[in-house]
Amino acid sequence: MAEPGLAKLRGTLRLNEPLARHTSWRVGGPADRYFEPADREDLIALVRQLPQREPVLWLGLGSNLLVRDGGFRGTVIALHGALDGLSREDETTVMAEAGVHCARLAKFAQQQQLAGLGFMAGIPGTVGGALAMNAGAWGGETWRAVLQAQAIFRDGHSDWLGPEHFGIAYRTVLPPPDFLGFIAARLRVEPDDGSHARTTRESLARRKATQPVGKPSAGSTFRNPPGDHAARLIESCGLKGQRIGGAAVSELHANFILTDEGAKAADVEQLIQLIRTTVKLNTGIELEPEIRVVGEAAHA
Questions:
Q1: Does the annotation count 290 as an active-site position?
Q2: Is 7 exposed, middle or buried (0-12, 13-18, 19+ CB in 10 A)?
Q3: Which residue among 73, 88, 171, 188 is the active-site one?
């Protein structure tokens, strides 16, 4: 589909695309433009045609993301299914493009008898999203494994950069000037004697037993505060099962918010605020959301 001013694109371009179709909470209003590139060259072609100040939202599996009911005024670039290259470069390096599912990356490393990426099996998103937020699970963090990340900039050029070019902290990544998004990463691995594969299987089994896997959620809603766990704090305040509209705190894991059919993004956002206020009032601790909130509220 063509749009005036955007030429020679081979991927799929849709206007006013409902983002509820593409987020794991199944809520969210429309994006002005929604683009699924055919490959990285097609992605670069789009970026070079975007206005300099165009708001851009990168989308993988739509986890760790809340799009408000009024939608997103700008361009959404959806990479899952497009940038899905995954290969072993040498004995200590795996290359993964930004659209690769983190669980697929963990399984690939396991099949290649490589250790160091098993924690990726616990991240419900893509490599691009994991890079953008320094996602982690089971004691592992994305940027501890990154040798280089391929970044794309506002003018359409790309470059392989080491971790020293980014400000890396817990669930936080500060990019260099004019950075737009991630295309791929080279990740550090080492030969596995079998113990890491066993640990990964055991961790996946534990995740299935303790988290509401397979139900509409965005993964963990809040960051763990230093020395404590968000789920414990939320549960200690009696908030398991707390509901606003079509959104509810999981009875299985208190740091997960689940949505019903017909839920609104406003339900989720109001529930997040209720949890933060209640935990602050009862414990003195200010919970920080792990999820990103983007877009505009619905017009009355």
A1: yes
A2: exposed
A3: 171
Residue 2 has pLDDT above 60, yes or no: no
Is residue 13 within 8 A of residue 6, CB to CB? The reply is yes
CATH of domain 212-294: 3.90.78.10
Annotated catalytic residue 235 = no
Domain 86-198 CATH assignment equals 1.20.1250.20: no
Cα 285 to Cα 300: distance, rounded to the nearest angstrom: 34
Is 73 catalytic? The answer is: no
Convert the pLDDT of each residue in 62-111 to its tens digit.
Answer: 888 999 999 999 999 999 888 999 999 998 999 999 999 998 999 999 89
What are the tokens at 288? Answer: 């920080």
**Can you tell me the distance from the alpha carbon of 6 to that of 29, in angstroms, rounded to the nearest whole number?**
23
Q: Which fold has domain 12-78?
A: 3.30.43
Phi and psi at residue 12, to the nearest 5°: -100, 125
- Per the residue annotation, which of 220, 250, 269, 276 is the catalytic one? 220
Calculate helix-pair angle for 102-111, 195-210, nearest 10 degrees.
Answer: 150
Sheet holding 257-259, edge to edge: 243-244, 247-249, 257-259
DSSP 8-state assignment for residue 3? B
Domain boundaries, the chain: 12-78, 86-198, 212-294
